[in-house]
Structure formats: C-alpha cells, structure tokens
Amino acid sequence: MHYLSYQLLKEARLSITKPREKILSYLLRYEEAVSGHTLEYELKDICNRSTVYRNLNALSKANIIHRIYLDGESRYKIHPGFLYKKFNINHPHFECKKCGRLFCLHDQSIHKPELPDGFVAEGINYIIYGYCNACSKVKMESEDAQKMDYLIEKQNQK
Ligand SMILES: [Zn+2]
Ligand SMILES: [Zn+2]
C-alpha cells in the first residue's frame, strides 16, 4: 500500500479499496496527466473497466484527482490542491506537441470570462500548447543542426 494514497483516501473520507489505491499510486508516480485507457490497462488484473471509471468519478468528486479533457479523451491527474492544501481548481494546462504529455500549471489561476446571459458554464478547459522543457531543448538542437546542414551545403556549393 502506497502511504500517500492511503493518506489521501483517509483525508477525503473515502473507503480504501484496491482499485482506488492503485489509481492513486499510479497517478502519484507521474508528473503528467494519465489517460483513462492507461489506467484501464494498469488495473485490468484487479477490476473491470466500469469499476475503473466509477472510481475515477468518485476520486474526482472528492477532489483528490481532476479530469482534463483533451481531444475527446479524458486524462487524470492528482489534484495538486489536495496535496498542498491550496485549492486552485481552475488552473491552466500545458500540452507538449512533441511528446504529448499534459502538465498542470497549478500555481497559476485562470481569469474566468464573463458569459452572455443564459449561458451556463460546466468547467474551464484552458490548454497552452507548445514544447515541454525536455522537448524544447531537442527542438532547438535539431534547428541548430538544420542550420548547420544548410551552411555546410552552401559551403560545398562554392
Ligand atoms: Zn515534450
Ligand atoms: Zn491540472
């Protein structure tokens, strides 16, 4: 039993079950958000698909984790507010175009836009996309390499 998973469940007054403990341990291991499919796969030996989603819903409702929608797919992440006692439910996310990882920018908040009369918001999905710290380095290096190739080619043409 992962100690922190146990603590989180206890603090949220949720019963401690194997699927919940396993979902939390898995999510605690990664810096990025994890897709429902990945969790289904990780838990396939201990429970069925609907149990996975039922538990994901229970954990989301208790605010231990949060759900992020991306390209019609849900990804899940431990709610940073729950860990640091600082609730910032509406924070922006960052999607890396290269490795596809999704990060929580939980120390930032989102300014809620005014809605026209009669519009009811259900949530905010604010995603910044670009390159994460690991991928932006690789990108710059490959751009440098391309420049270098170009210069060499030019040199050879002379
Ligand atoms: Zn990346
Ligand atoms: Zn988040």
Compact overview of the structure:
Helices cover 45% and strands 16% of the residues. It is of the alpha+beta class.
How would you sum up this structure, described in words?
By secondary structure, the protein is of the alpha+beta class. The chain has a single domain (3-157), classed as Winged helix-like DNA-binding domain superfamily/Winged helix DNA-binding domain (Arc Repressor Mutant, subunit A), CATH 1.10.10.10. Helix content is 45%, strand content 16%. It has six helices and six strands. The strands form two sheets. It has a three-stranded antiparallel β-sheet with strand order 1-3-2. It has a three-stranded mixed β-sheet with strand order 5-4-6, with no helix packed on it. α1 packs across α2. It is extended and about 75 Å long. The chain starts with a helix and ends with a helix.
Secondary structure layout:
Elements: H1 3-11, H2 18-29, E1 34-35, H3 36-42, H4 49-61, E2 65-70, E3 73-78, H5 80-84, E4 93-96, E5 102-104, E6 127-130, H6 133-157
Parallel strand pairs: 4-6
Antiparallel strand pairs: 1-3, 2-3, 4-5
The structure holds zinc ion (2 copies).
One zinc ion binds at residues 96, 98-99, 101, 131-132, 134-135.
**What's the name of the CATH homologous superfamily?**
Winged helix-like DNA-binding domain superfamily/Winged helix DNA-binding domain
**β-strand number:** 6
Order of helices and strands: HHEHHEEHEEEH
List bound small molecules: zinc ion
- What strand line-up does the widest sheet have? 1-3-2
Question: Main β-sheet, in a few words?
Answer: 3 strands, antiparallel
Give the helix proportion (percent range).
40-55%
CATH class placement: Mainly Alpha
Low-confidence stretches: none
Radius of gyration: 21 Å
If you average the pLDDT, what whole number results? 87
Helices, by number, come to 6
Shape descriptor: extended
Assembly state (oligomeric): single chain
How large is the share of residues in beta strands? 15-25%
Number of domains: 1
| C-alpha end-to-end distance | 68 Å
